[in-house]
Design a protein that fits this description.
The structure is a homodimer of 513-residue chains.
Chain A lengths: L3 H5 L10 H33 L8 H17 L3 E5 L8 E6 L7 E7 L18 E3 L9 E2 L13 E3 L3 H20 L7 E7 L9 H7 L8 E4 L11 E3 L1 E2 L1 E10 L5 E2 H4 L6 H12 L20 H8 L5 H8 L11 H4 L4 E10 L8 E2 L2 E10 L5 H14 L3 E3 L5 H6 L3 E10 L2 E2 L5 H14 L4 E3 L8 H8 L3 E3 L15 E3 H17 L3
Parallel strand pairs in A: 3-7, 3-8, 8-20, 9-19, 16-17
Antiparallel strand pairs in A: 1-2, 2-7, 4-5, 4-6, 6-21, 10-18, 11-15, 11-17, 12-14, 13-15
Helix pairs in contact in A: 2-4, 2-13, 2-15, 4-15, 5-14, 13-15
């Protein structure tokens, strides 16, 4: 795992902004805002142009067109650019570098420009023909013709297109923030590097290779991830980590053919019952994982992380109502606290059929699909070992392929385990100098202490940066939480775009000793 | 439940055949066999004629054509016949009565003439165009043209058609047995009544009504059921009961919409986990039902039943190999013993999806389909009460419809239960005079003690006779176990038809004091 000691030993010069920094941040914000107000149409127009390019990661031709377009956008701003890729036939990442004379520190800003497929039904307009609308979809919402817009835009307007929020919006915010600083004559305090990935939505299959291959030019004192949404309360938040993930398909077996439940029930083992008992042995109803040693590798939260968590708002009452929940797991623990622990989620169950399709028969097998969410310092491989040790200690014989009849006959308890050992968690300590500097800069531009999530419950492969580059990674997202990312009618609320411009500009300008 | 005391008090005169009876039975068998050998082509031809009539229960026109045809077959033999039905627009049963001057006892022989639908793929000839073939389907099996058959038929030949075994074959065996007795000048010892049902494969929805409406003419000292197969060893068996059945669809709930398992895992309750724990609370892995009081209504086996069971052959070793079972439930108990107890079978599980279709999400609900097999003196209603008491005692709120959001919010543990309270078990005591007389008559004609199953593991509605008519009901099946009943290419092995003729003739002739 990442060696934070090594990293912390650099004596990073990024500053936790004091009072003077806050004043400075206020000034920067005013100037950036003034620039934005004067250039809204231009900024939205540039975003619309980028959103017009199809960008599903598995279409290499489309991804290359996006990369060319982004390269031009960066070069217009004076970035020196390069295409970084693992090989000639894999999706490229776009790299841009803008050195600041005299700057001692370097920060890489990460976003991805590929998007999820958009084949789902329900898009009310072409996913790659961006449309500006007067608000979230619903009664009264209207299309707005960008060409005819005069003066200031309503910040509740939204731009609808695939990747509007995830992540083309943040890319445009980064560049507009830089334009604004330049227009105001404010020099960045850091060397700025942009790393724009082209296959994040495909699971970043070549990211580690790219990072390793180009480690030298990607050298930096911190990475800022611009991916992800702000808090559901619309408040700005910073995140310092994300849970890891591993998947497991688990199959247990009954008779070779379905058996009449009258003639054989109570004698031929019922795999659905077996599976129920097996699952009950893995996890209780409060979310506690019962596999011996499962929590041994869990790195406890430190004081800074605990304090940050305590500062996050309660969302439980409203969420329970929204989701129709009569209870929650964890004996009343808050949502945000609960996702700091590892979890075992049963994604699905399948055995024979239920309802109208059910036959009075003993099924031949039963399957559960499971995902594990991991926290530092668990690894998928160790989780696999723990699960398999647990099952073996309970008499299970484990196989990875569909067993033949001889294997079924030989083992009273037989399970097929198909693992997907995805990736571990990552969590940058909140009290590293870089962490504190980023937080202070964001606090200063927002004008109040923003929410700080030590770790997201969901999984993004932050470990690729932390493990490969041994660098602090901090998420500073800007897009609205209700942006429908991955779904139909993805959108970006203009106020979030405006906020992003100010926050990223503040990071460019304010991370200075 | 059935009052056996009332019934036993009749002092039934049916005789447990002694030595003299056995000798007599041998003679009857020889004469019936000689008749059959001389009339094989005629008997198979009559069966083929009956099998040519479509007989799916829900086609009232077809069922009426079968009823007419059967009425003629009975009247040709001197039966006085009647159509018995619950109403004008429900499938008729065919009733025939043949009184024997001087006979004091009356036995009803039951079979059904409707058949399962035959729409499945894989029939190698029209289900309602009977074909004689040289054996079970497989390499080398040949069609045989009945018209060209000379002399004796190979007893391993089989006649293929829907209902060949289930139950048109037994109907023809009953009538051929009677013809054989007549040809030999042997007078029946009993009044013979035939009750031929026309909608058994549809769940006998009007059987109780018909039995109640016509209780007077159906009065008898015993019923013999001709439905069902002989033992897998091809040995003749008698059965005295059948388990009852009840079905339950059980649904538990998670969030109103699928939730990202990273962002909400460990907090929003996972219904698949909840269901697993719930099922594990109902039944252990050895088949033992953990619901308090579940076994309270179980009538213990009496000595005669225990003795009969002990006489049934072991089939476990071969079955385990055939079914690929590495273990069996019940800590090594024999199959036949295990089905004497009630069982809880999970027919199927369903929650979201598994494998390729699985999403990293907390499912909205999870469903299990369950069947209970009941034994005397359990009732479906009592089973329902026990299950619901158990769940309520564990904090479950139970509903019968899909709950609305308010209901979901109000109840931490919420389950939807959809019951199918089918019917109770029935078990005629083996030591009743009627039971002993039937067994003795069959033993005598077969020439050795036949297998006696106190109860079938599967469910047939024997309770309709026992509960409605308060009469002993004993199953004397004749068809081969590998007849593919309900499936494709249903067939009847000729040796089983020949055996049936001898056994039913023996019952007509040998049940005498």
């Amino acid at each position: 795992m990442t060696s934070w000691r090594f990293w912390g030993g650099l004596g990073l010069a990024l500053l936790a902004a004091g009072r003077a920094g806050a004043v400075e941040a206020g000034k920067v914000r005013e100037q950036v805002r003034a620039y934005r107000v004067a250039h809204e149409k231009e900024i939205v127009g540039e975003l619309a142009g980028l959103l017009s390019l199809k960008n599903v990661a598995n279409d290499l031709g489309d991804i290359r067109k996006n990369a060319d377009h982004l390269t031009q956008m960066l070069e217009r701003r004076g970035f020196s650019t390069r295409i970084l890729s693992a090989s000639d036939d894999t999706p490229p990442a776009v790299y841009g570098e803008l050195l600041t004379p005299g700057a001692k520190r370097t920060v890489v800003f990460y976003a991805h420009f590929d998007g999820q497929p958009a084949g789902q039904k329900g898009w009310i307009s072409d996913p790659w023909k961006p449309v500006l609308r007067s608000g979230p979809l619903g009664p009264g919402v209207k299309d707005i013709d960008l060409a005819t817009v005069q003066g200031s835009m309503d910040p509740e307007w939204r731009i609808y297109a695939r990747s509007a929020s995830d992540d083309k919006g943040p890319i445009v915010a980064l560049l507009a923030g830089l334009d604004a600083l330049r227009a105001a004559g404010i020099k960045p305090s850091i060397n700025i590097k942009l790393f724009l990935e082209g296959e994040e939505e495909d699971g970043s299959p070549h990211l580690t290779q790219i990072l390793e291959k180009h480690a030298e030019i990607l050298k930096a004192d911190a990475w800022v991830l611009c991916d992800g949404p702000v808090h559901q309360t619309r408040k700005m938040q910073i995140y310092y980590g994300a849970r890891g993930v591993a998947g497991l398909e688990l199959t247990v077996y009954g008779p070779l053919r379905p058996l009449h439940s009258g003639h054989y029930g109570n004698w031929a083992p019922n795999p659905a019952v077996t599976l129920s008992h097996l699952l009950a042995s893995l996890r209780d109803e409060e979310g506690k994982i019962l596999i011996p040693g499962f929590y041994d590798e869990v790195r406890p939260l430190n004081d800074a992380e605990k304090k940050a968590l305590a500062g996050m708002p309660d969302v439980e009452t409203g969420l329970k109502r929204e989701l129709g929940l009569g209870r929650t797991e964890g004996n009343g623990v808050r949502l945000l606290d609960s996702v700091m622990a590892p979890s075992l989620n049963v994604r699905g169950l399948r055995s024979a059929d239920v309802g109208e399709g059910a036959a009075n028969a003993i099924p031949t097998d039963a399957q559960a699909s499971i995902d594990f969410r991991l926290v530092p310092d668990q690894t998928p491989q160790k989780v696999r070992e723990r699960v398999e040790e647990h099952l073996r200690s309970r008499g299970w014989h484990l196989v990875s392929e569909t067993p033949d009849t001889a294997t079924r006959l030989a083992h009273p308890r037989l399970a097929r385990l198909e693992w997907s050992l995805d990736y571990p968690a990552a969590r940058t300590p909140l009290d590293l100098p870089a962490s504190r500097a980023v937080a202070a800069a964001v606090d200063a531009v927002v004008g109040e202490p923003v929410l700080k999530a030590p770790m997201l419950g969901g999984s993004v492969p932050m470990y690729m940066f932390t493990d490969t580059l041994k660098v602090p990674v901090i998420g500073v997202p800007m897009v609205n939480h209700d942006n429908n990312q991955h779904g139909i009618n993805e959108n970006l609320r203009l106020q979030n775009l405006w906020d992003g411009i100010e926050v990223y500009a503040a990071l460019f300008a304010g991370l200075e000793l």
